[in-house]
């Protein structure tokens, strides 16, 4: 047997075995559309901390999930699904919403980029907002968007209190915003996308845009307008 092919089969078998346990499969389903801390996962799934830690360790060992440290509260970590490790048969949970609102702290980069990407993939309306909006959109965000055929004009920064409407699906695209929102908006998604303004380089903004594009690609087919059929 070819050694490279054998290693690939073994790795796939290990992942299938890990997914064969209902709690671990539920963890993957929960992380498919958004990141979560271990505490949030345990609360959502009703798993005690010792059992959750066991399941997370096995999923990490087979390369299905990875951990990143929060850019907000450095004591927290978030779990991120490694989509490339999944097979194409992974189901996509459906969500219904009249509008999708992307939220970050300053509403100057990630949330606007996510909204621009969303418009390219879905007819469901979108908006963006911040928990502590900056005075303007970051120029490098505008440049990164333009480079990929997206336009952020004539968008302006806005506060979430002035933006949010009933039944909006909120997607927090940064750790700070997610942690600031807390229980105020319990049924939201969280994407732990690193803040490109920390380094301010073109590469950082390109990386953020790429990360957001991958996540929007996954979420857009899963969100349907209120009412109608799931087919």
Brief overview:
This protein is an alpha/beta fold. 41% of the residues lie in helices and 13% in strands.
Tell me about this structure.
With about 230 residues, the protein is α/β, with parallel strands linked by helices. Helices cover about 40% and strands about 15% of the residues. The chain is built from eight helices and eight strands, in the order H-H-H-H-E-E-E-E-H-E-H-E-H-E-H-E. The strands form three sheets. A four-stranded parallel sheet has the order 5-4-6-7. Strands 1-2 form a two-stranded antiparallel sheet. A hairpin with a 7-residue loop joins strand 1 and strand 2. The longest helix has 18 residues. The chain is globular and about 50 Å long. The termini are far apart.
Average of per-residue pLDDT values = 91
Quaternary organisation of the protein chains: single chain
Main sheet specs: 4 strands, parallel
N- to C-terminal distance: 43 Å
Count the strands?
8
Principal-axes geometry comes out as globular
Bin the strand percentage. Answer: 5-15%
Low-confidence stretches: none
Radius of gyration: 18 Å
Helical stretch tally: 8
Write the layout of secondary structure elements.
Blueprint: H1 3-19, H2 22-31, H3 38-45, H4 49-61, E1 65-69, E2 77-81, E3 95-96, E4 100-104, H5 110-121, E5 126-130, H6 139-147, E6 169-172, H7 175-181, E7 189-190, H8 202-219, E8 223-224
Parallel strand pairs: 3-8, 4-5, 4-6, 6-7
Antiparallel strand pairs: 1-2
Helix pairs in contact: 5-8, 6-8
Features:
two-stranded antiparallel ribbon, globular, single chain, 4-stranded parallel sheet, 8 helices, 231 residues, alpha/beta
């Amino acid at each position: 047997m070819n050694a490279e092919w054998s290693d690939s089969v073994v790795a796939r078998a290990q992942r299938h075995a890990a997914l064969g346990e209902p709690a671990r499969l539920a963890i993957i389903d929960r992380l498919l559309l958004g990141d979560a801390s271990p505490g949030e996962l345990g609360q959502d799934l009703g798993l005690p901390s010792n059992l959750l830690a066991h399941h997370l360790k096995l999923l990490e060992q087979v390369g299905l999930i990875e951990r990143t440290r929060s850019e907000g509260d450095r004591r927290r970590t978030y779990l991120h699904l490694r989509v490339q490790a999944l097979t194409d048969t992974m189901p996509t949970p459906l969500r219904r919403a009249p509008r999708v609102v992307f939220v970050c702290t300053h509403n100057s980069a990630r949330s606007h980029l996510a909204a621009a990407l969303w418009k390219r993939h879905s007819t469901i309306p979108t908006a963006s907002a911040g928990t502590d909006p900056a005075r303007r959109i970051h120029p490098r965000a505008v440049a990164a968007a333009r480079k990929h055929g997206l336009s952020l004009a004539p968008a302006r920064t806005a506060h979430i209190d002035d933006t949010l409407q009933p039944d909006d699906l909120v997607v927090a695209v940064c750790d700070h915003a997610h942690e600031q929102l807390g229980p105020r908006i319990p049924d939201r998604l969280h994407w732990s996308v690193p803040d490109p303004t920390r380094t301010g380089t073109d590469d950082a903004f390109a990386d953020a845009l790429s990360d957001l594009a991958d996540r929007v690609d996954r979420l857009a087919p899963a969100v349907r307008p209120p009412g109608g059929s799931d087919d």
